[in-house]
## 1
Amino acid sequence: MIRMGRKQGMITAFAKHSWQICCARDRNMTLALTVAMMCLGTLLANADEGTQSIRFTKDWRFTKGDPAAAETVDFDDSKWNTVRLPHDWAIAGPFNPDEDGYAGKLPWKGVGWYRKEFTLDWPAGSRIYLDFDGVMAFPQVYINGQLAGKWDYGYTSFRVDATDYVNLSGKNVIAVRADTTNHGTRWYPGAGIYRKVMLEIREPIHIAPWGVCITTPKVTDDSATIDIAVQVENHKPAEVSSKVTFTLIDASGNDVASASMDGTIAPGDSEFKQTLTIADPQRWDVDHPHLYRLTSELIVDGKLADSQATSLGIRTIEFTADDGFHLNGRRVQLQGVNLHHDLGPLGAAFSTRAAERQLQIMKSMGVNALRTSHNPPAPEVLDLCDSMGILVWDECFDKWDRTADRIHGKPSLQEHGERHLRSMVLRDRNHPSIIVWSIGNEIPDNEEGVTPERVKLMAEIVRKYDTSRPTTIGTCFPHQVAQGVYDSLDVVGWNYLRRYANHRKLLTEKPILYSESASTLSSRGFYALPLAYTKTDYNPGLQVSSYDLNAAAWSDIPEVEFDLMKKDPFVAGEFVWTGFDYLGEPTPYSHEAKSSYFGIVDLCGIPKDRYWLYRSYWNPEELTVHITPHWNWPDHVGAKVPVFVYTNGDSAELFLNGQSLGRQEKGVRSDRQANLAVGKQFSASSTRPSFEADLAGDDDMDSKWSAENDSPVQWLQVDLGKSESIKCIVIEFEKEAKWYGYELQVSPDMIHWETVARKPVSDFPQWGGSTASIHKTDIQARYARIEFDSLSDGNHASISEFAVYPDTAQSMYYDSTYDYRLRWNDVTYEPGELKVVAYKDGKQLGTARIKTAGEPAKIRLTPDRTRLDATGDDLCYVLVEALDKDGVLCPLAENQIRFQVEGPADIAAVGNGNPMSQELFQTNSRRLFYGKAMLIVRANEGHPGQITVTADADDLEATSISISSNE
Ligand code: GAL
């Protein structure tokens, strides 16, 4: 069926000097050719070919600051730096140690200018566009001195129509001003033209930007219906005769369907619609991401005028209220991660290879889903997800205020939402990987925030551009359910602490996702003893222990979330916060550190221990046998060093220097002592209804005793029924123990009381702190009692569990760890070899061993790939480690390593995953952090050849590796 004629309002006409309607790609290999030439003054044209897409990334000039008249043609930029896009001006540093770490302590605030000169030789009537994937922030684009377009959100893509400003036969100057001054952020945003720019040259009649829309409304095992709508722009004053042809090709290159339509195209915008039906469709799925390719060709007056290739996947998706998410008719548990847009040491400057590596590392751990927190990603990320079978939550905003580049409600939510949701949905709608659109994250119901009407408005904007996927929000506000805030959404994503419980009760028909889970914290390679008692019991040394027992106060360790996902199968699955460490938000050392501790892998992509925990559970098909911690504890000879093993097996036996330390089995909680107070008689000075005294002795951390008022003078007491030998009293408070001042007493008879501990209110540690107080005793008593004498502001006496043990004890918070990791809590340390043999169903599965290392003696370099492409974008990640003279990894080494790269490549960045480090990323040396660092090498564009990477250090044997860079 053919339908032609003027189109109804989908693509708005471009307005000069005003907001440019955004658009861009479509993985559009345009008809003629992507061109690879481009340097200052290069002639950009071959006038015989009507259409070109040119990567506009080389030979830009850049300066920080805001020089007057920088937009003018004759401005002298010869003293500016030459840069290649994508470019992030802030990642070079330096760090500002005095600044809070929320945005990485990097100099991202301010104004920067980019300029580029180019020459065109193109016939009159040609259309010239500049497509920007992302500029941070508030870009103004000048062409030949005139403002040609501007944009007001750093994370969405936009097009500038340059046609009326360019000189089609001669020299042109483009100047872009980026200004981050008014950008608000909670993480490192980057600065400048941090994603690619394309120069798009088109004939006067061409396919509109993001103008191909493909949906698959009917899919069965036998056939699939493919609906295609193509928007065409006719910039000529007259009607033309045309033909549009569609060819669908499968992954093996076979034509599987085609159609063509003849007609006329009137001046302005037109739409063509076509339906193709194919037999035996191959599904796009997580394990089998089959992609078809649709070529749309526009023929005008008998000549090919434009062509676009769009990849597509045939799949069905459904979110259900009671049975999670269904892909192609079967339930798929979402095993997802949140990823911010920065690429660690490379900053926000986008690199396809760096993103591909991120996704490969995540996938190897069992990830099948990605939440692009909290903004649309570079479009290449979605291409990667399409081809790797990763399901995507595509998110437009964090809040709707300054992090969305909206300042005090200006522009209106309607205008701003329309502009940017449209950009996200039109750009991304053909990606089969995307399963849900998100309108924002954790938006409060304040002045700039959510109301039922505003959420409806935003959801309707999304649906205007795509009805084939559901719309969602990420939230942490259970009270908003009853306010009706989520009524107009299809799915609701919840962040942390099983906050979806209220939704489950009230909105029974609406599907639920766990959009943020875990927020567990750790520094790769660092272990603190003794083990954390509760999740907020952080090490005061500004690193977080990799025993994986710490989480942010508002979140949990991985196993708590694994249990929830088992218990609540109506939830579609979880997105862990976060897959990779990112720049900024360094909870709990928010002031001191510069990058996060949340990642399952560190800032350089080196796995932390947690990677192996997730992999053992999420990817059980792969062999995982991993020992935590390292075995270099010179100060602990003869002392206890706990050993955890992460494995996809169900049990394992541990050996130290050949001696068996016994076998542990998943699900067996060997260590926790019986709590003598469970079920015994409790009394208290006062209680609130439903928070009675005996709830402090029910062995359940979710229930608690709470005093009825704020008076600090309160008490709680237990009668054990008979005299007992007491070795340990553990009080689990509702909040951090530091907020409570009290005296702990015991008595044989309720007449003679002995004080066993006194504790004042304190404000240490600044962040977090344990919710439990542990008091070691060695007494005989029948009664135990806590008497509060002071409470910090806003708190009242409240205890989740008052536990009395006949021996030393562990927090019951960690009980679930025994179901997922194997724990030997009392290994007496001696240097040597620790070996584990893992079993599954009684059969040996695999082994792992670690050894005590001697002094660092040499360097090991391990490249992730040894063949690169000389495209200017390709990277090699070289893992740098210190070994002792026998080749044993030195887990504590911190040598400063120097690098040299010879051949057609440069050092793109160095890093070591240390959240506290303020060493530069763009330099040629790096200190090892717990034995490891990362060197990132970039192959030069257009210069294939051999690359030699050499690493040396004082006192270490140097080493070299070879990499080749190919055409
Ligand atoms: C969430 C928030 C995220 C991040 C995270 C850290 O509440 O949505 O952006 O801040 O906390 O745990």
Note: The mean pLDDT is 93.
## 2
Amino acid sequence: MKIIFYEQHTDTDAWLRDFARELPEADVRVWQPGDTAHADYAVVWRAPRELFADRPDLKAVFNLGAGVDAILDVERKEPGTLPPNAMLVRLEDTGMAQQMVEYATYAVLRFMRRFDEYDEQQREGRWQKLPQHARKTFTVGVLGLGVLGAEVARSLVGLGVPVRGYSRTPKDIAGVAVYAGPEQFDAFLDGAKVLINLLPHTPDTEGILNARAFGRLARGAYLVNVARGPHVVDADLLAALDSGQLSHAMLDVFHAEPLPADHPFWRHSRVSVTPHISAETLREESVVQIAAKIRALARGEAISGVVDFKRGY
Ligand code: NAP
Ligand code: GLV
């Protein structure tokens, strides 16, 4: 079996070593421009269009991340980019859920215990105790209850705060008040104190974090965006921060990455920026999952994590 691999910003040799260990029967090669030789599978992150050209034999494309928006965007703009018979498969958890839980827990504790404000007070040399937020009304809403969002929501229940979740279809998660579909979106948002975004970026979810949504949250609410930059209308977020409707935004993802040097988020005192690190792709876990799925496909079995092109995730 032949596999082509493409990921520009990684230790490629380490990936090849891990594939050789997990899938010794496979011949895995790094794809280079001009390589049109046969391949059964592609393992890629942000691959150029040329990699997919003239590959009717390709059975599956494994995306080295949970979000497939970049690859679907190319397919939407240039239909036929992906080989017609190849399924697109995304990573499912592979250690990302734990990282998201850590990021979300840190954010909720930081805001609930007002550590962001104490940081500011320290910079001003000010010693002042602030009244604690009441845990029972410090409602956290998690947008997206998939592989990552469900785990984040479940873990936040353990902090003793009220937890809400929002998804397209109803879910049953112990301790989480679940809202589903656009008709329940406003009820999900109403009065929430922290909004954590873990939606996929699709035409339906683009711009969902806008003035209208911010206006339904509790006054002085907090935003945590760990999904994709285009979910946020940046100008609306800045206006909500400046008006006091939002107290702070913790942002890991942006419309353009790296975040351009002149973007106001860099210097806003109530915006925290991290460079798309909330949940990184872990090599060993990813190789184990992809190898297991390739073996299952070879046995003619169905696999999970196959992207539904119509839904967009
Ligand atoms: P997932 O398992 O596909 O879950 C997506 C969730 O969003 C599902 O619960 C889905 O509802 C819900 N959803 C989709 N469209 C919706 C809509 N229009 N309205 C309401 N709910 C909607 O995805 P995942 O593995 O949890 O990952 C989520 C996203 O996190 C990825 O797409 C990626 O963009 C982002 N991510 C970011 C990083 C980072 O480092 N910043 C790392 C990994 C992932 P249903 O359950 O009803 O289908
Ligand atoms: C990272 O952003 C991912 O989608 O896995």
Note: The CA atoms of residues 3 and 41 lie 5 Å apart.
